[in-house]
């Protein structure tokens, strides 16, 4: 609101705008990379400390324009949580007790040296590029293995045929076709949902392909519904329908290719001047996601929609900097449990596999966890290392569009804490290795020298700005109160290999087939905007929007199993049984169970499960 009559509940009556200082940052709640501004000030209630009073959008017309979603507006609250770790912990006589940095880092370095090539470093997607680079350098120097914590693949395909440099959704309209596959975009990346919707309203041809209805369908020119597990086959069927010579594809893809609606959608995509494919992780695990990414790349190459602006592949990652992790050499492992068990030492940074029910009881002899909170995984660790939040440091993220963007410190760090990359450098120093651990910009200089796609990048380049319209924060009073002028950097979009003359590889990957026994259902993971992860559950305002742990089934399946809406059920996955609520959904296909990610239910890929009623729904 330009005059401030409408304010957020966490800000109302708690500060005056002219008392606030502005600090530029990047939202780290999803892969869009929205530009935001933190308003901060000192206050007596917090003991004279600097605190963040609100988050506001910062104008970047190629990323988020002047918008930010509620998750981005309120999701930063975790950084000020009283549950943050503020001191290293070490296990003594079976208990985690406070330790000095010197003691904790000495123990870690000693065990890492002893483990050597038996070290496994598992990194999460919230880490900055600088953190990931130092982690890779440390692990590689010891001969160890790095892994990305996640169940979505395709970062290598995005680097090959991703969105061309200069792409801007705001410029898409007639002549552009956008295919969205395996993604509930409004839940996974709300600003992309908004920008795709606006492109469709301007005349772009929108094709939505998903196993269940989503809100994006109302703006689609073509809608294709496929069964869960047929994501890649559906995209390949579109490709097959365009070929006079039928390609040697799986039978399911050949069958789908005869569908008239699919044929019309494929024709519209192929004939469009520009083509963009957006794929997500609706109902997929690592194997299915890898096959889907390859299928999407095949379609783009075959229709000549690569190598230039407004064309290419976009992955809807589950975390903010997963594309950056792929660019820096991190990959998810096919069998994470086996990898964890085989390691002699585990270094888990910004990830909580135990919180997702991964069994760590029989894993490495030595476990180090580096995180903001005492997570379920941290409770099992031999050493726990606390770090700064992104609001207390600087660094860079690489968005899903492969735009590298810089964020700045908004408030001072808690006493004794430092950034992830600096902690890694301190461990490396004790091992006789020289890693940059003081200045983030120097780490970016090393990234630019060693990672070809990042060549020429620097903090100065990422801080460059140019004129944007509408004009924000100066003479334009209409927009002036809703967003901040961007004077701290618009970032830099990396060019995919296809735009630099590279030749992408084509192929067909067969995802692992899930066999559903008689009497069982197919459980598939889906992403919800508001989950029960640590960074969201710490927000008092967003907690009101987070439902209890639950699964969704079709009304037909619910009736057959005697389930009432929001009643308690027993969900059995292999030998694991959990009690959750069940939600009946008329739009779901029969025999399918939707399991939201980050709700404490151990389903990260399609799997057979059984449901059993425990109690009826409350009246």
What does this structure look like?
By secondary structure, the chain is an alpha/beta fold. Helices cover 26% and strands 21% of the residues. A 7-stranded mixed beta sheet has the order 5-4-15-14-13-6-7. A 6-stranded mixed β-barrel has the order 19-23-20-22-21-24. Strands 10-9-8-11-12 form a 5-stranded parallel beta sheet, sandwiched between helices. Strand 4 (89-92) and strand 5 (95-98) form a beta hairpin. The longest helix has 17 residues, at 286-302. The chain starts with 20 loop residues before the first strand and ends in a 6-residue tail after the last strand.
List the keywords.
alpha/beta, six-stranded mixed barrel, 619 residues, seven-stranded mixed sheet
Average predicted local confidence, pLDDT: 92
How many β-strand runs? 24
Helical content band: 25-40%
Strand order of the largest sheet: 5-4-15-14-13-6-7
Structural topology:
Blueprint: E1 21-26, E2 35-42, E3 50-57, H1 70-74, E4 89-92, E5 95-98, H2 101-115, E6 119-123, H3 129-141, E7 145-148, H4 155-161, E8 176-181, H5 185-188, H6 190-202, E9 205-209, E10 222-224, H7 231-242, H8 251-256, H9 260-271, E11 274-279, H10 286-302, E12 312-315, H11 322-327, H12 336-342, E13 345-349, E14 366-371, E15 383-386, E16 395-398, E17 403-407, H13 420-430, H14 440-450, H15 459-462, H16 477-480, E18 492-493, E19 521-526, H17 534-537, H18 540-543, E20 550-554, H19 555-561, E21 568-573, E22 576-585, E23 592-596, E24 607-613
């Amino acid at each position: 609101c330009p005059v401030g009559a409408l304010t957020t509940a966490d800000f109302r009556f708690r500060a005056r705008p002219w008392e606030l200082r502005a600090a530029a940052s990047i939202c780290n709640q999803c892969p869009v990379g929205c530009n935001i501004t933190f308003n901060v000030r000192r206050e007596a209630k917090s003991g004279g400390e600097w605190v963040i009073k609100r988050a506001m959008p910062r104008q970047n017309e190629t990323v988020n324009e002047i918008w930010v979603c509620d998750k981005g507006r309120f999701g930063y609250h975790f950084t000020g949580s009283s549950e943050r770790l503020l001191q290293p912990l070490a296990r003594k006589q079976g208990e985690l007790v406070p330790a000095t940095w010197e003691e904790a880092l000495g123990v870690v370095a000693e065990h890492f040296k002893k483990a050597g090539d038996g070290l496994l470093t598992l990194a999460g997607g919230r880490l900055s590029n600088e953190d990931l680079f130092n982690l890779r350098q440390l692990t590689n120097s010891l001969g160890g293995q790095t892994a990305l914590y996640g169940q979505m693949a395709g970062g290598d395909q995005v680097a090959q045929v991703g969105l061309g440099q200069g792409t801007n959704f705001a410029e898409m309209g007639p002549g552009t076709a956008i295919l969205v596959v395996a993604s509930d975009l409004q839940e996974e990346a709300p600003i992309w949902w908004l920008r795709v919707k606006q492109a469709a309203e301007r005349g772009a041809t929108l094709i939505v392909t998903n196993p269940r209805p989503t809100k994006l369908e109302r703006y689609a020119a073509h809608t294709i519904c496929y069964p869960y597990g047929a994501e890649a086959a559906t995209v390949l069927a579109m490709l097959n329908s365009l070929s006079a010579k039928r390609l040697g594809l799986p039978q399911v893809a050949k069958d789908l290719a005869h569908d008239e609606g699919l044929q019309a959608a494929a024709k519209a995509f192929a004939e469009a001047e520009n083509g963009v494919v957006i794929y997500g992780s609706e109902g997929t695990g690592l194997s299915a996601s890898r096959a889907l990414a390859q299928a999407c790349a095949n379609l783009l190459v075959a229709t000549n929609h690569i190598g230039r602006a407004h064309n290419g592949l976009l992955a809807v990652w589950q975390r903010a900097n997963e594309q950056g992790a792929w660019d820096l050499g991190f990959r998810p492992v096919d069998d994470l449990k086996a990898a964890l068990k085989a390691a002699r030492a585990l270094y888990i940074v910004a990830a909580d596999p135990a919180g997702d029910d991964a069994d760590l009881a029989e894993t490495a002899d030595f476990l180090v966890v580096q995180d903001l909170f005492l997570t379920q995984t941290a409770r099992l660790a031999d050493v726990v290392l606390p770090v700064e939040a992104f609001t207390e440091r600087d660094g860079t993220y690489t968005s899903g569009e492969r735009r590298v963007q810089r964020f700045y410190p908004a408030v001072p760090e808690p006493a004794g804490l430092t950034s992830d990359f600096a902690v890694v450098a301190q461990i490396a120093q004790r091992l006789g290795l020289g890693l940059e651990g003081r200045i983030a910009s120097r780490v970016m200089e090393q990234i630019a020298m060693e990672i070809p796609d990042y060549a020429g990048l620097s903090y100065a380049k990422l801080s460059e700005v140019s004129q944007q319209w509408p004009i924000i924060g100066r003479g334009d009073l209409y927009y002036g109160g809703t967003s901040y002028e961007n004077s701290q950097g618009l970032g830099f979009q990396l060019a995919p290999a296809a735009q630099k003359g590279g030749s992408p590889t084509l192929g067909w990957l067969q995802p692992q087939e899930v066999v559903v026994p008689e009497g069982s259902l197919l459980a598939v993971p889906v992403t919800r905007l508001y989950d029960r992860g640590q960074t969201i559950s710490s927000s008092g305002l967003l907690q009101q929007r987070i439902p209890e742990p639950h699964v969704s089934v079709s009304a037909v399946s619910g009736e057959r199993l005697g389930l009432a809406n929001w009643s308690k059920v027993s969900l059995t996955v292999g030998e694991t049984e959990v009690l959750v609520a069940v939600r009946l959904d008329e739009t779901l296909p029969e025999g399918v169970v939707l399991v939201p990610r980050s709700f404490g239910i151990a389903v990260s890929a399609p799997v057979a499960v059984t449901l059993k009623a425990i109690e009826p729904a409350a009246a």
